[in-house]
Amino acid sequence: MTFYLWVALMLFVSVLWLMWFLYRPLKTNAFNLEKSNIALGRQKQVELKQDLQASLIDEQAFEQANDEIAQTLAMEMEHTTDITVDTQKNVPLWLPVLIVVFLIGASWGIYQSLTSQSIVSAKLEIAPTLTQSISKIKQHVAEQPNDAEAWRALGLALFEFNDTKGSLEAYQRSYELKPKDVAMLVEYASTLATAQDNQFTGRVSTLVREALEIDENAPDALYLAGRVAVNAQQLGLAQKLWQKALSLLPEGQPDKAILQKMLDQLSKVQGGKKPISSQEEPASKLQVTIKVTLSERLRQAEFSHHYLMIYVKAARGRPMPIAIQKIKLKDFTGAVTLTDDNSVMPSKKLSQSSQVLAVARLSKSGSAMRQVGDIEALSQVINVRDNPTIELLLK
Amino acid sequence: MLPEIGHFALILALMATVLQVVLPSVGVWRGNFALTQLSRPLLWMQFFWIAVSFALLMNAFLVDDFSVKYVAGNSNTQLPSLFKMSAVWGAHEGSLLLWALILSAWSVAVSIFSKRLPSEVLNHILIILGLISIGFLLFLLLTSNPFERLDIVPMQGRELNPLLQDFGLIIHPPMLYMGYVGMAIPFAFVLSSLIRGQLDSTWLRWSRPWTLIAWAFLTFGITLGSWWAYYELGWGGWWFWDPVENASFMPWLVATALVHSLSVSEKRGAFKHWTVLLAISGFSLSLLGTFLVRSGILTSVHSFAADPARGLFILIFLVIVVGSSLGLYAWRAHLMRSSHQFAPFSRESGLLINNILLVAAMLSVFLGTLYPLLLDSLGLGKISVRAPYFDVVFVPIMIPAVLVMAVGAFLRWKKDSISRVVDLIIHIVFVILTLTLIVFLSIDNIFVVLALFLFAWIVLHSLTLLVQRLRQKGKPNMAFFGMIVAHIGIAVFLLGATVTTQYGVEKDIKMSLNETVEIKSYAFTFRGVENLNGANYTGSKGVIDVAYQGEKIATLRPEKRQYVTGMPMTEAAIDPSFYRDIYVALGESLGEGAWSLRLYYKPLIRWIWLGGLFIVFGALLAAFDRRYRLKVRIGV
Description:
The structure holds two protein chains of two kinds. By secondary structure, chain A is of the alpha+beta class. Chain A folds into three domains: 3-110, no CATH class; 125-278, Tetratricopeptide repeat domain (Serine Threonine Protein Phosphatase 5, Tetratricopeptide repeat), CATH 1.25.40; 288-394. Chain A is 52% helix and 13% strand. In chain A, a hairpin with a 6-residue loop joins β2 and β3. In chain A, α7 packs parallel to α9 (182-195) and α8 packs antiparallel against α9. The longest helix of chain A is centred in the first third of the chain and has 22 residues, at 94-115. Chain B has three domains: 1-158, no CATH class; 161-413, no CATH class; 505-606, no CATH class. In chain B, β8 (573-575) and β9 form a beta hairpin. The longest helix of chain B is centred in the middle third of the chain and has 32 residues, at 201-232. The interface between A and B is large, with 101 and 100 residues.
């Protein structure tokens, strides 16, 4: 049912409700104000007697209060002006017509005036208002040709309007004015790929790479990079990129289900092969070396069978380790080097990370979760790209 | 499409309200019965469309419709469903919609449960309530549309303020709004009486139960807010004299005065001027509270709507409401003559003194809240008025109010003799003074001695009164029991607030692993920190063992959360009991396994909220007194 049908239904229900009660008015209750005040005056006298019984008023004051109740009632009667209404009086015919016209006209008029400046109507009726939107944006970019955001909006609007050529021209202008806009690069690449019959090659690939250079964790750009990889028959790389995009999308995000579906399809295409990332790609040379110094106390024999867990975790976001080595303290030589081989998840390797924290934890149980009694040392934020070597002290 | 339907439903609600005001008014003017009787059906129609609008906004939250700006700004896919629902009133637009819905619900309740009110009176009341609704619906539609769409739909919404992701905040705002908006009912009763020129027994009798219910909700809302602030903000405090807290406290003080003033006006026909002015100022202060919170002129956890346009709208609305109602009062003042006379020493005098003290207390809060804003707006500098001011100004006003409150209930209507009352209470005073002396010799804190004195003063007087009334002929009514319970609630609150303030211990310390700190015989041992992974946050969870006299009584796990949007949040861990709370909040990691911690020992803190609940219960008992359910017999 369209919005307009809903509106018509809502108005119809309202009018029907109103007309029903206009011609079948609710019954009035049996008493008017005068009778109500008399009844309440009597009730107050009863309550006054109860107050007397409860010694809340003495005899003399009781008589006086009783008189006052009577006087108050007399005053109330004096001021009571009966509002006379004619229960038989007919409703003039023009009135319901006026009410219906008012209800429909005013409500729709207010709705129109309140929503004219928003894009609501554009969502409801794509064709006419999208044209209006496009002409407005075109007018705007004619007046302010250096507004990169407006060119991008025009690109998106023209794409929605199936004017791919115009859309690409607009995106190109936006690109020239603001080449470091990840969202624009992603939209531009998508539009270009559509224009190339969904071929994610050539300029599309360049634009996606530029987007990832600016933000390596942009899920949209990772998704497109996966499409580029699929186009190049690098299915393992595509799998890796989409897994990364998947891990970056928050739980419950609708795009997550789509990505998961594509990953499943990819697995079927690969025919159960192991992820190509571990077979085809050259191993990353990135590494983090962590030297751990133990205090005098921890060098005692009683700690020799404790577990030393040395790992890196993301400086922001999830606290679970990215790469880890777990060894008994007696076997520890003073330093460990973490590489992609020590990564906990294939989809989140050390070489895919940038800002991390190094952690050394001495634990009696060796449990992955930190336990009471564990001793821990934490580094400052380090950059994996620098192949850093850091020192931690456990006390 | 659903958000557009919600928006249109809101417009239909406005149209229904306009007709609710216009058609019955025309009906009265033209003497047309059918039109006068339309006020109730049109009100129900208004309620229905606002409810539809509210349900559709909630649906937009539940289905993560981020094309709606308000949803995208206050919810995300990771937010648990319960908090998605409460996120509807987590920010400005939705809370205004909730306000409009509650006002409509109150109006519907009045239209259904006021069957003993003559139709002509009820119609007038509904017209006034309709006018107030028009103001709020216009405010919503013109400045705060909750269904506004976004040009570009984000993939993910923003985080709801983590402070609001809590059970306390799910129910605190609706309860407080029930109280705020409920003050519109006595206001509408008064205004309809002023317009009709009939300030009579009918108005006084039937507005009292509504006032009591609104007062109960306001008390409950404030109590919930205090409880939430205590456990959620991580400061261990229960009242901060925050301007927004004050904004709800001012109408409460006036509503307290109003329920007492109404009792005199209703039974004896006196204090009509007072009652009218208190009803007007109670609702005006509710609107002022809305203005303070919504205009953005205050900076606190509550001020999530910094928009001068909105502030201007409410200010204009406030001026219209206050100006027109005071104008009506001035016009009709001559009708409030009363033949009632009472002696200086009487129950009426006691209630009048209490009323004056409550209004003076409200004015002290009003001054402390608005004076800094006035100075700031005049460019005369910024000052902060906090607890020391209120301790010096507010508390001394309330002490005599509490003393009079307990004794006032013993006084007779119209006139009484000092000797009679002294005879009645001399033994209570003797017992209290003896107890106070004993306490004074064993406790060196004068404030606690004073609080114990006042506690005993109220409780012993109330219980003595109860015993006396039960021994007399005739069963006391529910209103009497309500009064006793509410007064004891004040005593319980007072003792809890003083003891926790005076004897509470707070320590901000650095604790290393397995280090133990002792506070008031409670040993706190820091056992380290665990990782924390919630639905939409990660963080750290401290482990602190608490032992009393060598015996372990609890393990507390305070949390330090980092929400996905980067907002940090502290979740205190509490070991509650009737006599004391042990409260721990986790601070920052100081390296090498050490953390900063805030440890609190809070004696009798639960009594603060227990007192609030007593007052709520007392108010409800009084509201449902048999007298307000009696059918008025006609033509007897």
